[in-house]
């Protein structure tokens, strides 16, 4: 089987570029979905405290028998827990639910700028990292000004910024800031929550490569250098979304997808989620 490529983060850790996302995966579906993903070959799982499924993720991991060091697990600090003591307690609770001694990556889920407490949260994440509870630390949904502030006021530069990014919402300005600061870009809702699958250009490329629209989009993310974790609870789609390691899009076709941007934000705006 072709190996999933890895991306080296600014702290030297390596992250599998293709993972499995579990937002909105119910208590009922979480164990079968993650088990299926692990069986197919995914080794990177992206969850969050607010998804309410860390216990199921942990159970599927334990049941798989896959050695811990072969897995890459991300979880996220919820918005209500940015203050120091709450953040430490939340990290401990996530580890307990996951049944793990450490996660690979711990993120601030949203900056919640109206509360102006994300720098305190960042300092708590630095402490959580120094305790060994997480290998790497990063942020999610941070805008340029928030990134620059944590870089200036913190002592660790975030390893990643996990942002909404898909063919109709390419976020080129924010990706440029991530790159300038040495922060890797993780693309959430990589398929545009399925909206981008019906785009005409994507459909045409799928036909010409004899692949599915989802495979073309995921391949585009990989060739752009983004870290990506499409979500599905359907076994055949979990397999389909992993079947992207044995073909390449041409440079011209990557550029054709780059040109699909319409500023089509689907999820919440980071300035407004508080
Ligand atoms: P996505 O872009 O991965 O789309 C998922 C939806 O697309 C599925 O529910 C399914 O309906 C459809 N789909 C998936 N594979 C398909 C296929 N092969 N063919 C046809 N349809 C298919 O959306 P997402 O779940 O929003 O994002 C992926 C992950 O990103 C999440 O699970 C989560 O881990 C992460 N995420 C993070 C944040 C954040 O604030 N940090 C926000 C949203 C999502």
Please trace the helix and strand order, writing H or E for each element.
EEEHEHEHEHEHEHEHHEHH
CATH topology: TIM Barrel
Number of helices: 10
Structural class: alpha/beta
Supply the number of structural domains.
Answer: 1
The CATH architecture can be given as: Alpha-Beta Barrel
Physical arrangement of strands within the biggest beta sheet: 3-4-5-6-7-8-9-10
Q: Spans with pLDDT under 50 lasting ≥5 residues? A: none
Which small molecules are bound?
Answer: nicotinamide-adenine-dinucleotide
Rounded to the nearest angstrom, the distance between the terminal CA atoms is 43 Å
Tell how many strands the DSSP assignment holds: 10
CATH superfamily, by name, is NADP-dependent oxidoreductase domain
Helix amount: 40-55%
The radius of gyration over CA amounts to: 18 Å
Mean pLDDT across all amino acids: 98
Q: Could you tell me the strand content as a percent range?
A: 15-25%
Quickly name the level 1 CATH class: Alpha Beta
Shape: globular
Biggest beta-sheet profile? 8 strands, parallel
Which short descriptors sum up this protein?
binds nicotinamide-adenine-dinucleotide; 8-stranded parallel β-sheet; 274 residues; TIM Barrel; alpha/beta; globular
Describe it.
This protein has 274 residues and is of the alpha/beta class. The chain has one domain: NADP-dependent oxidoreductase domain (TIM Barrel). Helices cover 41% and strands 15% of the residues. It has an eight-stranded parallel beta sheet with strand order 3-4-5-6-7-8-9-10. A two-stranded antiparallel sheet has the order 1-2. The longest helix has 15 residues. The radius of gyration is 18 Å and the shape is globular. The chain starts with 5 loop residues before the first strand and ends in a 16-residue tail after the last helix. The mean pLDDT is 98. Nicotinamide-adenine-dinucleotide binds next to helix 9.
């Amino acid at each position: 089987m072709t190996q999933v490529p890895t991306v080296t983060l600014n702290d030297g850790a390596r992250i599998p570029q293709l993972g499995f996302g579990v937002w909105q995966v119910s208590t009922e579906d979480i164990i079968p979905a993650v088990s299926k993903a692990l069986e197919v070959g995914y080794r990177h799982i992206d969850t969050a405290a607010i998804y309410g499924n860390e216990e199921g993720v942990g159970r599927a991991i334990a049941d798989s028998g896959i050695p811990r060091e072969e897995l890459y697990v991300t979880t996220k600090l919820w918005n209500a827990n940015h203050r120091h003591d709450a953040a430490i307690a939340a990290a401990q609770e996530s580890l307990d639910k996951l049944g793990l001694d450490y996660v690979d990556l711990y993120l601030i889920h949203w900056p919640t700028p109206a509360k102006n407490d994300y720098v305190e949260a960042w300092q708590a994440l630095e402490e959580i990292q120094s305790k060994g509870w997480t290998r790497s630390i990063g942020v999610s949904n941070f805008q340029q000004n928030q990134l620059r502030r944590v870089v200036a006021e913190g002592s660790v530069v975030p390893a990643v910024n996990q942002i909404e990014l898909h063919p109709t919402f390419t976020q080129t300005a924010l990706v440029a800031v991530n790159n300038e600061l040495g922060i890797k870009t993780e693309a959430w809702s990589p398929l545009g929550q399925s909206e981008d699958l019906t785009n005409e250009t994507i459909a045409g490329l799928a036909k010409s490569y004899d692949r599915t629209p989802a495979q073309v989009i995921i391949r585009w993310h990989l060739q752009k250098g983004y870290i990506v974790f499409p979500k599905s609870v359907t076994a055949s789609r979990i397999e389909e979304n992993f079947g992207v390691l044995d073909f390449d899009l041409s440079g011209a076709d990557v550029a054709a997808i780059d040109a699909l941007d319409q500023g089509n934000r689907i999820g919440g705006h980071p300035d407004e989620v508080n």
